[in-house]
Specification:
The complex is a heterodimer of chains A (478) and B (376). Chain A is mainly β. Chain A has 2 helices and 30 strands. In chain B, strands 1, 2, 3, 4, 5, 6, 7, 12, 13, 25 and 26 form an 11-stranded antiparallel β-sheet that branches. Chain B has a 5-stranded mixed β-sheet with strand order 22-21-20-23-24, with no helix packed on it. In chain B, helix 4 packs antiparallel against helix 5. The chains are: A mainly beta (478), B alpha+beta (376).
Chain lengths: 478, 376
């Protein structure tokens, strides 16, 4: 049986299929919609030695390399992303008359150019024997008949043409994503039966080691005030360590007093994968005039990271001390173990005594990390669904990455979006094979203290994560 | 996954005061990016380019000035922060540019009468412009005139300059017309210290860095753009008179104090950085043997002194840089600049479709480039 290759257009409201691969001998007589079935379609993708054969092309990989000649042999890949695919598809159109043949061609031209003014045309491909269909967005396209139609093949009512399309860099599922986390309960702490981590189910797609987009639905279930700052990360691991809990105080504005420290935190996994270290600290108290920072040392050795100094302005807070680049250690030959010691210190901002009390540290080995902040609240308990979107979810359209991620509050009673949700700071969570989703958050102000630093370990939220598997060409059973 | 560099754009609050209350957009679909940071301004300039629709470009031209921006790196770190100072929009062969450069909304005239008596008019100001952009001072001069005439001059100039002026250019030519392209030119918040004039008749002395804190508070009392916190200002240990001549900008006054350096006779590096806070510290060139950034010639990447990669967008001035393969066999320990190392005065990060890089400039090449940075 011929492979299924067709276009889907919703330009008239409902979805209409235009089959480009056929199993019968169809011809357009000027009425009806024969293109909606493979057995009657007047379109045919040409697959022969004369005009060529077509298969979806993989997207061009655009890598940026550093270094190289004349100083060293070979360049080193530093960044990589993908561009759109532009390809030529040889196609033939059969009709009962010249005018009907031209009508077939005009129809294709109309739907291929709908992206800017209506909805993009979708290219669907299911090779013979393939279980699943892969769908692409067509950004632009055109059809050019060849010269035989009005010359040596005039009145044959057959158009031989070349359809040129520029389409999305990958294909995806249609209409809906794949659920990886379903209504999981998150507690705002790194310990206990219910905590701040949930593993993604195994996802499909080709970019599972490069990152595939996720949509998150987050509902704040227990909190007397809204979520004001939210940390989201796709992590390889999260290590919770309360062994450094303690209190430190000082009046010095220069020399930090030790609040607490942890030792021997293992980062072995970072030696074999491209993950970064992120340290977050949970404080049960930070005086208004206190400023805290961390110092990360190689275990028993020297410092590898000194964080920015962060001012706490609430009694409790979950603070992000920034990311630590570990690429150096992946380059050290034969290194099999990497451990760190972490010290938390406090400074005074004004020369008066200032203290801070550390509850625990969390060490994330992460792929992506982001922060959302909004002083007025991202999601109010039970009243607002916070949706972080990275791929399209629309009926009869492929689930493909948005041009930029979006975070919006949605009223749970009306289903309507709120305005004014903060931009996403950093890289929103992506699906990586074997990874988990981490979430930690602070409430909006309470007790008259301004700022989004009010962390409660008893707060909970529910999270649903769906993802858009991506395929560069064919999907098969994935 | 590409480089998740994002620009959070916010509408200004009343008086042009930066606010995160009203996000305008999370601008990620840019085609070019370049920012500069210097050791005497902090965040200096940011230029981004992108393709837009006609309606989108017109919106930028109409409502874009004074929007604030915070650029975030892929790990959520603040890369650059400032305000939108100029917009260029190209509609094929038609170009429209609008800028805050020539705008002034509080103008006074210094004049002398025919008898040689000096005077200053009451400032003429425009409340609507101040409500949009904040206060931006200008001083005119008029000799051998009257107070009334001088006031009239100020009012006339105010009427002309109170709003940003659109600069159109048109080219009618053969060849491709091109599409709709927008270029946004942001300036760092330090630049706004040039907006306000100040003076001080007090002649008693005070520590120079304390005076800087006072000047920041003075600026914030009119334009609450820059934080008044002095936590990141290292005391100089040097005192100077508090006298400030008339019609001195706050920036001039600050730089006159900081240019004196500290009690160890070392210059300062300063600027407005994250969260719009002023940082003043002894320059890294005081200890040139302490190297912060390194590169190996075979590598196109920058590393910190712990061996970690420094991404181009995270590179900062006031650092000592060293090219390991060019190390002097017998370096002069106190020399900031040598074959292998130099003090980084200015950093330019540029990102485009085929190149990502950072340019580090030494202290000899700052003045002209800094002025040209905003002009592009």
């Amino acid at each position: 049986m011929a492979s299924n290759i067709w276009l889907i257009s919703t330009i008239e409201g409902s979805a209409t299929s235009y089959y480009l691969s056929r199993t019968g001998i169809g011809s357009y007589t000027g009425s009806g919609t024969p293109w909606t079935a493979q057995s009657t379609t007047p379109y045919e993708i040409a697959m022969n030695d004369i005009v060529g054969r077509w298969t979806p092309q993989a997207p061009p990989s655009q890598g940026l390399y550093s270094g190289g000649p004349p100083f060293i042999n070979g360049e080193h890949l530093v960044y990589r992303s993908y561009g759109n695919v532009t390809e030529n598809v040889p196609i033939q159109m059969y009709a009962s008359s010249h005018d009907n043949a031209v009508a077939l061609m005009r129809q294709l031209r109309q739907i291929l150019k709908a992206a800017l003014y209506s909805v993009p045309c979708v290219l669907a491909v299911q090779p013979d024997g393939s279980t699943n269909i892969v769908y692409y967005n067509i950004h632009d396209g055109d059809v050019q008949e060849d010269e035989r139609f009005i010359n040596d093949e005039e009145r044959h009512n057959l158009i031989r043409a070349r359809m040129t399309i520029t389409r999305s860099f990958t294909g995806g599922r249609l209409s809906s994503g794949e659920t990886l986390i379903s209504g999981a309960t998150y507690a705002n702490t790194g310990t206990g039966g219910t905590d701040n981590l949930a593993a993604y189910s195994a996802g499909a797609g080709e970019l599972i080691y490069e990152g595939q987009p996720l949509n998150l639905d987050i509902t704040c279930t227990t909190a007397s005030s809204s979520i004001a700052s939210l940390y989201l990360a796709s992590v390889y691991s999260r290590t919770y360590d309360a062994s450094g809990a303690g209190t430190g105080s000082t009046s010095s504005t220069i020399s930090g007093a030790l609040v607490g420290s942890t030792s021997g935190t293992s980062l072995d996994a970072a030696l074999s994968r491209q993950v970064h270290l992120r340290v977050l600290g949970r404080f049960s108290n930070i005086d208004v005039n206190a400023r805290v920072y961390i110092e990360v040392n190689l275990a028993g050795s020297g410092r590898i990271y000194l964080s920015p100094v962060i001012a706490g302005n609430a009694a409790t807070a979950l603070l992000d001390f920034g990311y630590v680049d570990l690429s150096l250690y992946r380059d050290i030959p034969s290194l099999t173990s990497l451990q760190i010691d972490t010290g938390v210190r406090v400074l005074s901002s004004n020369g008066s005594s200032a203290s801070a009390t550390l509850s625990y540290l969390e060490f994330l080995l992460y792929y992506t990390f982001c922060t959302l902040e909004h002083n007025s609240g991202l999601a109010a308990q039970g009243a607002t669904l916070l949706r972080v979107g990275q791929f399209t979810v629309v009926t009869n359209r492929p689930c493909l990455p948005l041009q930029r991620p979006i975070a919006h509050g949605i009223s749970t009673s009306t289903g309507r979006p709120r305005i004014g949700v903060a931009p996403i700071r950093g890289t929103p969570p992506q699906y990586f094979n074997g990874a988990s989703l981490y979430a930690g958050w602070n409430r909006t102000s309470s007790s008259g203290i301004t700022g989004p630093n009010d962390h409660r370990t008893t707060d909970q939220m529910t999270v649903t994560a769906t993802h858009a598997p991506l395929w560069r060409t064919l999907r098969g059973g994935g | 996954m590409g480089i998740a560099l994002s620009l959070a754009i916010y509408a200004p609050g009343a008086g042009g005061v930066p606010s995160t209350a009203t996000p305008v957009m999370d601008l990620r679909q840019i085609t070019s990016y370049e920012h500069t940071t210097t050791a005497r301004t902090g965040f200096e300039s940011l230029r981004v380019g992108f393709v837009d629709t006609t309606e989108g470009a017109l919106d930028w031209l109409r409502s874009g000035l004074m929007r604030s921006v915070i650029a975030y790196g892929p790990h959520g770190e603040i890369v650059w922060e400032g305000y939108l100072a100029a917009i260029d929009a190209m509609f094929g062969q038609e170009t429209r540019s609008v800028s805050l450069d020539g705008m002034a909304n509080r103008i006074r005239t210094r004049f002398t009468t025919v008898n040689g008596i000096a005077g200053t008019t009451t400032p003429a100001s425009d409340a609507a412009s101040i409500a949009l952009y904040g206060t931006k001072d200008s001083v005119l001069s008029l000799p051998e005139t009257t107070s009334t005439a001088a006031s009239n001059l100020a009012a006339t100039d105010l009427a002309r300059r109170k709003n940003p002026v659109m600069q159109p250019t048109t080219e009618v030519a053969t060849g491709g017309l091109g599409g709709v392209q927008v270029t946004l030119l942001f300036a760092g918040w330090y630049d706004t210290l040039d907006w306000l004039l100040t003076s001080n008749a007090t002649t008693s002395t005070a520590v120079t860095t304390t005076q800087v804190g006072t000047l920041l508070s003075t600026a914030a009392s009119t334009n609450a753009f820059i934080s008044t916190t002095t936590t990141n200002i290292t005391a100089s240990g040097v005192s100077d008179t508090q006298y400030i001549g008339t019609d001195t900008t706050i920036r001039q006054a600050i730089e006159q104090l900081l240019n004196q350096g500290n009690s160890s006779n070392q210059r300062f590096a300063w600027g407005v950085y994250e969260h719009r806070t002023m940082h003043v510290e002894q320059w890294a060139g005081a200890n040139p043997a302490v190297v912060h950034y390194r590169r190996h010639l075979p590598s196109g990447q920058l590393y910190d002194d712990d061996g970690a990669i420094v991404h181009p967008w995270n590179a900062r001035p006031n650092r000592m840089y060293e090219a390991v393969d060019l190390l002097d066999p017998a370096p002069v320990s106190t020399a900031q600049d040598a074959a292998a190392r130099f003090f980084v005065e200015r950093v330019t990060c540029s990102i485009s479709g085929d190149r990502i890089g950072v340019r580090l400039e030494p202290q000899t090449s700052d003045a002209l480039d800094a002025r040209l940075a905003r002009l592009g």
